[in-house]
Amino acid sequence: MVSAGDATTRFFEELREREHEPRLRGATGTYRFELVDGKKIDRWLVTFSRGDVTVVRRGGAADCVVRADRALFNRLASGELNGVAAALRGEFEAEGDWRLLVLFQRLFPGKATSAAKRSRAGYARRTK
Amino acid sequence: MNDGLVKILDGNTFVVSDANGDIEASLTDPTGLFSFDTRFLSRWVLTVNGQRLGSLSVDDLQYYEARFFLVPGTGTVYIDAKLSVIRRRSVGNGFHEELTILNHSEKPVSLTVRIDAGCDFADLFEVKDALQKKGTYTARVQRGKHLVLGYERETFRRATSISATAPARFDKDGLTFKIRIAPQGEWKTDLDVETVQPGPRRGQEQRRDPRRANLTMQRNLQRWIEEAPRVECDWDPLKTTYRRSLVDLAALRFSPPIAGGRSLPAAGLPWFMTMFGRDSIFTSLQALPFTPELAATTLGALGNWQGSRLDDFRDEDPGRILHEMRYGEMTAFEERPHSPYYGAVDATPLYVVLLDEYERWTGDRKLVRDLEHEARAALNWIDEYADLQGTGYIWYRRRNEETGLENQCWKDSWDSISFRDGRLPGFPRATCELQGYAYDAKVRGARLAREIWKDRELADRLEKDAAELKRRFNRDFWVEDGEYFALALDPDGNKVDALASNNGHLLWSGIVDRSKAKAVAQHLLGPRLFSGWGVRTLAEGEGRYNPIGYHVGTVWPFDNSFVAWGLRRYGFKDEAAEIAAGILDAAVFFDGRLPEAFGGYERSQTKYPVQYPTACSPQAWSTGTPLLLLRTMLGLEPMGDHLVVDPSLPTSIGHLELLDIPGRWGRIDAFGRGRVEVGSSRRRR
């Protein structure tokens, strides 16, 4: 498969391995992602229940459906693109419960430009 | 203040027109139909036989509808009064306009009625900053029945669809009706202007039948007012002010796409009809004893959008509560960081404060459990991400240096934080009220952890942290020679020593040592800060003091409501009543609608409060001010499952009743009688 091992596949596989994701405790529901690569559509079904997550690589009924070019999703999954801005630009289609969509975008990484700078502040010791 | 513009709105869809109902916007001119921060109509001009119309009167029936009574001709003397034109407009998904023309003569008339329509699809930010568009425009007539105006930039698409019920000829610049009206007859058409944009399906009903939608809105407003507590009072202006606040708060309700139809308070009307962390939280706090559902929606929506990663452009950190959300083109293309922007440092601790206060009033433990992750992340943010100097305080310095905010506290203008001599400190800055909010968040977070999340370890740690923070703060921020708390610390830990209203917020937070509270209260009511109407943002005599400077001398009603709450917290009941009396007196001059700010001039000098000119009115936290003042005057405080009432009212108010106060006790009435003699010495001056 051409798309094996890209950022999208890694994103979903890592999510599957995590089993529990506290950041999505408030998102009980099912998402279906349809990732379009030419004529191929790769489908992922992700279900959250109070933070417990199951991920399967197939279609199915869902509360939220996201249909995106695979190349675009690669950029979201790697943190290169911001999901909210991309949605406002109309770069992908999304249907269903918008609250669930907003919660899901927490899982995308950010552009980690300031990570080094921040960790310095984060680990600083306070003077008593 | 009347700018001659007529504004109607529903949530973040609003129409601003002239007194004729016409719209002729240039790029920088703030008129038109706006929705989700985009202008969907910039031209909408009605002519009859090629002639513009003149306005006889305008009826703003409700905040969501207006009626324009017009006659042909625009001069002061109408030449031809044989025709009347009525435009009745209401906001829905776009707007709906009922156009009626009456023929008063005994002869039939033939008329050409024309509406010119056009759109620039400007982003609100472009209107503010006069920027040029980068996409392309389209206009097409669909099956002779719709005019569709469109805008495209890459995958970004927005459109406006215009249609009419009466037969019309559409072209790319509008629509024309050729009509004949019998003697004493009338002609009517309904016009619909719909916005086409991505988003969850909303307002289906409104699209089908605008009249029914109107009725729904009317009922909704009625229910809103009926469900709020009632005020009975000897002093009539308070009843007027209270009613004005309730109606304005209804207008300021905004239902973000993620809230499932529930609403939270937006910041201001019309340009700030969006979610702001700080404004939505403060307004929800003010309105808690009256409309607690606003707090629940605010907590839910801000929780959903809580920061989850490091992002310099958006000033985002894990656990941080957003500052401002926008949906327009510049946000979409990351020319502005509002998707959402996180550049506020007070919203995060205040989020925890609101969650606790909400539970104390409503007993809704479920929401506290549902938002446990978000509240813990917010508490964690205070220690892990906000302490930029490693000194145990909240500091701010923007990471987005191009379009981020310099001052990330409520006094966010460039010169708001200064030394006595007017110098501005460097960054990062730690303003004092932030430390108060952090203290309060820890104390309240500890209660939630102990009683609801059943996490004793976290509760103990938060309480210990809070006690240490209080001790440190009272040492590091106290200005010995002035006996008040410094406005901020500069990056070297020096006290930014100007005297400011922020001291009142410190009382509200509870961080002030009992031994220092009296001196602070005396400053707040003293001649340098208290103008007679209220507490100035910055004290008279400071280097940058200016009675009409935005955050450096004006009086902000919202600020005062929290100062009054703070005074009550430390037992200064009469002082709180004095502030309530001043602000409520000022409200009378604005027909019960308090502006965002007014001049810091001495009351005896101007006799009336001089309004600071701002674009937004009503402003949410000014609207919430009379509500919080009612709470502080009556001394309402939840205590377990009971509501304590401990009134301290100015004599001018006389007898006051607040009936059917909702809460964990069901509904309770509170009564009080004015006994505090206020301002008399001052007024005689």
Sum this structure up briefly:
Chain A has helices at 7-18, 70-77, 83-88, 98-104, 115-122, and strands spanning 29-37, 40-49, 52-56, 64-69, 93-96.
Write up this protein:
The complex is a heterodimer of chains A (128) and B (685). Chain A has 128 residues and is an alpha+beta fold. Chain A has helices at 7-18, 70-77, 83-88, 98-104, 115-122, and strands at 29-37, 40-49, 52-56, 64-69, 93-96. Chain A has five helices and five strands; from the N terminus they run αββββααβαα. Chain A has a five-stranded mixed beta sheet. The longest helix of chain A is centred in the N-terminal third of the chain and has 12 residues, at 7-18. The radius of gyration of chain A is 16 Å and the shape is globular. Chain B has 685 residues and is of the alpha+beta class. Chain B folds into two domains: 6-217, Glycoside hydrolase, family 65, N-terminal domain (Beta-galactosidase, Chain A, domain 5, Distorted Sandwich); 228-684, Alpha/alpha barrel (Glycosyltransferase). Chain B contains 20 helices and 30 strands. Chain B has an eight-stranded antiparallel beta sheet, covered by helices on one side. In chain B, helix 16 (573-588) packs antiparallel against helix 19. Mean pLDDT of chain B is 93; it is low at 201-208 and 680-685. The chains are: A alpha+beta (128), B alpha+beta (685). Chain A binds chain B through residues 22-23, 25-26, 79, 82, 84-85, 87-91, 98-99, 102-103, 106-115, 118, 121-122, 124-128, and chain B through 154-157, 198-200, 257-260, 303-306, 308-314, 316-317, 327-328, 331-334, 339-340, 370-374, 384-385, 387-392, 399, 468.
